[in-house]
């Protein structure tokens, strides 16, 4: 699974000192949910598309604890997601059948006008590797300002509740 996890540093210390942790629960859960939807949404926009399974598999999971302390954004168990996100170094052979299916879907032809032998693509990937397409980390960077705003809003809500 390719994934990124967003966690607030120092939150555990705040929780230990907080007399009323339930004041933190709602605002923090809402902020982490917004982060999850926002980053996953941007990652879906950035993810490469062949059949759409990668985009469809991007989602998020918020810490079920109370209060929530993290959100994980990633892909369902798609064996190729990590290779797309991080790239594939030279020397590692990709599995043949997915390459063959891709070549057939694309209708790729060789220089002789005949259908391209999938082994040629497989060998090229093994020799050269593939470039990383870090759709998750790029999405996190692209949405950094919005993420900060979600937690600023959560802090204001906590302050308002604390003072009333």
Structure description:
This protein is mostly helical. It folds into two domains: 3-85 and 132-163; 88-130, no CATH class. The chain has eight helices and three strands. It has helices at 11-17, 22-46, 53-57, 81-86, 96-106, 118-128, 135-142, 144-163; strands at residues 3-7, 58-62, 70-75. Strands 1-3-2 form a three-stranded antiparallel β-sheet. A hairpin with a 7-residue loop joins strand 2 (58-62) and strand 3 (70-75). Helix 5 (96-106) packs across helix 6. The chain is elongated and about 75 Å long. The protein starts with a strand and ends with a helix. The mean pLDDT is 88.
Quick structural overview:
With 164 residues, this protein is mainly α.
Summary tags:
mainly alpha; three-stranded antiparallel sheet; about 160 residues; about 55% helix; elongated
Please specify the SSE layout and strand pairing:
Elements: E1 3-7, H1 11-17, H2 22-46, H3 53-57, E2 58-62, E3 70-75, H4 81-86, H5 96-106, H6 118-128, H7 135-142, H8 144-163
Helix pairs in contact: 2-7, 2-8, 5-6
Biggest sheet strand order reads: 1-3-2
Radius of gyration: 21 Å
Largest β-sheet summary: 3 strands, antiparallel
Number of helices: 8
Whole-number mean pLDDT: 88
Oligomer: single chain
CA-based shape? elongated
Count the domains.
2
For the terminal residues, how far apart are their CA atoms? 44 Å
Number of strands: 3
In percent, how helical is the residue content?
55-70%
Reading the helices and strands in chain order gives EHHHEEHHHHH
Beta-strand portion reads 5-15%
